[in-house]
Amino acid sequence: MLDKKLLEILACPICKGDLRYEKDQQELICLPDKLAFPVRDAVPVMLSEEARHIGPDEEERYR
Question: What's this model's pTM, rounded to 2 decimal places?
Answer without folding.
Answer: 0.92
